[in-house]
Amino acid sequence: MKDDRLYLHHMVERCQRIARFVGPGRGAFMASEELRDAVTRNVEVIGEAAKRVSAEARGRLSSLDRTVGKRLGLRMAGG
After folding, report:
1. Is pLDDT at 40 greater than 80 in this prediction?
2. CB 42 within 8 A of CB 29
3. Contact 64, 76 (CB under 8 A)
4. Is pLDDT at 53 greater than 70 in this prediction?
5. Phi, psi at residue 76, to the nearest 5°?
6. CA torsion sign, 34 to 74 to 79 to 9?
7. Which of 16, 30, 38, 48 is the most buried (most CB within 10 A)?
8. What is the pTM of this model?
9. In this structure, are residues 71 and 28 in contact, taking their beta carbons and an 8 Å threshold?
10. Which of 43, 21, 42 is closest to 30 using CA atoms?
11. Which residues neighbour 18 within 8 Å (Cβ) at sequence distance 6 or greater?
12. Are 23 and 29 in contact (CB under 8 A)?
């Protein structure tokens, strides 16, 4: 089993890539099939890494999920 920090690091890296890809704005993003594909792939990688984070680590991070979600105005599943 790999260290949870590695999976979390992968997730942060992919979030940073997504932020860079969508930085130019919605119009540029929607006009580029390549950008949309890149973002989709990075979201998939985040999901795969998230599935591998241990239950213990997910438990410690669940309150962070809710805090970030509230600040972003998101409705979190189960929260």
Report:
1. yes
2. no
3. no
4. yes
5. -95, 140
6. positive
7. 38
8. 0.72
9. no
10. 21
11. 39, 42, 43
12. no
